[in-house]
Amino acid sequence: MFAEITIELSQPIDSTTLDINLNQLFTTETSLVVPPELSAQALADLLIACTIVLQQQGGHPIFISGQAEPLNQPNSFCLSIPYFHAPSAIDALTWSVHALNSLISEPVMNWALLQEAYQTLLVKLKRVAAGSFTGVNAFHFFNAAYANNIPYLHLVDKIYQFGYGINSRWLNSSITDTTPALAVALAKDKLFCAQLLRATGFPIPLQSIATNVDTALQMAEKMGYPVVIKPIALDKGVGVAAGLLNADAVKRAFMEAAKNSQRIMVEKHIDGDDYRISVIDGVVERVTRRTVAHIIGDGISSVQQLLDKTNAEPRRNSGKQQTLLPIKITEETAFLLAEQDLSFAAIPKIGQFVRLARICNVAVGGEPSIVDLSLVHPDNLRLAIRVAHYLGLDVAGIDFLSPDISQAWHQVNCGICEVNAQPQISGNSDTVKGQRYSAILSKLLNNADGRIPITAIVGHQDTIEKIAGLLHKIMCQSGVMTGLTTSQGCWIGDEQVAWKNLGAFAGERLLLTDKTVETAIIPLTFKQILNGGTIFDVCDIAILMNTQLENISLNEPYSPAALANLNISVLQRARKAVILNADDINCMVQRQFLTHQEIVLVSTNATQTEVLAHIEKGGRAVWLDTRYNQTFICFYHQKIETMPLIINSDFSGADIVFTVASAWMLGIPLTTIYAFIYS
What we know:
It is built from 21 helices and 29 strands. By secondary structure, the chain is α+β, with helices and mostly antiparallel strands. The protein folds into 4 domains: 2-131, no CATH class; 137-177, no CATH class; 178-205 and 273-292 and 362-423, ATP-grasp fold, B domain (D-amino Acid Aminotransferase, Chain A, domain 1, 2-Layer Sandwich); 454-678, 3-Layer(aba) Sandwich (UDP-N-acetylmuramoyl-L-alanine:D-glutamate ligase), CATH 3.40.1190. The protein has an 11-stranded mixed β-sheet, sandwiched between helices. Strands 16-13-12-17-18 form a 5-stranded antiparallel β-sheet. The chain has a 4-stranded antiparallel β-sheet with strand order 4-5-6-7, covered by helices on one side. Helix 2 crosses helix 3. The radius of gyration is 31 Å and the shape is globular.
């Protein structure tokens, strides 16, 4: 997102006080640092930092920094701000401007209003985040993608794409683009899923649907206490109550479950530890033991005091050290304590385990711990794999109850209580979470980064679209399914798929989200970069035909330096090579800002001094050379190779030499390039 701002330094600013007030205003720990010397540039940078931190506190996946570029007017800047949701970023920027102005002018007078506005906006940002992805999976997948240089983008609703084109995968939380819809629907219906699995010999506890409280009580009496009450089609432990010992407990649990679902089931309770066995593509990725929310008596403190102390631990509070959620107290907690002959005021014995919830879910304060796979009986691992395979799930969380997981399932009283088609993967530390999500993404993307070769061509529209069109034809003739977007439409391979100008951003999106595209060619004018930005974070080849400064009105507030920086921002994303027009002095000036190992100079002049000097240093180059009334295209990389130039009336020698240079750097053999030119 781009924004223009002007900063007026009308009075001295106490940077120390501003630093203290700003960090107090953000209620959780931040990395904001106010520099000692507050110039206009420093304040612009601080404004961007505040906007990013606020989005991050709202749960938005922002992992990169922004940039403030000076404009022509004094103390005016063009702000480049990363965002997840554009309207939220605008709200965050607006609040940050107001906050900095208020803290600089009248911090004491404006403090209460600022805090109120901050809290209101934070709630709004969190609501947007909650509506954009399910559970914690998506955010951690974003984080893992960023850490592993994997591109991702939002498609629609809660569906996201990781990677580009033919190498991309789509995810909705942990549901993938290859997860069968039928399997997901079946797993979400706990009763039907259990009936199917039990009928085929899997260890499933007795279950029955209960239409009302009386039916639930009859089922409980028939099965024998303890029992479990659970909604049939809800996730995350909502409405589930396990270990119910009597009719009163069943009545309360049924009424609570009925608040969330009309379809409720009664299940025979299995005594044992609660395990989540995570299966991905037919392999057990992890086994996690989930311990119910609890406290341990010390013989001195009451249940309430121990609970308060436990919830005050850093690992259960928001901040960098948080790995667990606070223990959630409900009306049922008092009854559960009574079953243990305790109350909130009672003092448990030293070492006494006091259960505070009827389910082990992390959402209500449960504690996960990783189980070494070598301690799990192989038959139990095979059982989980069989269940996932039988239901057709590529990603599954198998909830398994067993008194001893080192014993085979067919030798002890154990059972599968649930199969999750969209499991929350999580972990008990940031490091573990990062490793788990990274491993899953790596597996989904075949141990690669999911990228496809992208060629970005920057310059005047007519010129760059001619080169893009020629390059597209060469790539298609080479057997590569190539996507192209121009002002005339979009092509995938030889097929035109759009017949109007979608705009660079929408056209780019069309190509990068199509799972048949093996490489993409994206021509970009300066105004397209400025107005819409780009989807791609890096490209393989970046070509600069000219600097386009003459396309911008002198009345517009962009300095030559700011315009050049936008061109450079595209060139610096090239991970394989940058191709520069050696005949354009402005292009060559920008060479000094590039640190690429591979810079290719292209010229229509065989005696171009920059090209000759570049070759002398061992650099790659492509140029035109006319000898004996014949023009040749010359390629230099350790040695000179040539091919005759055949000029079509629709294209100039410059068009062709840039096109073949691009194809050459994309790995197309010179014989294939020559065959195309000759044809």
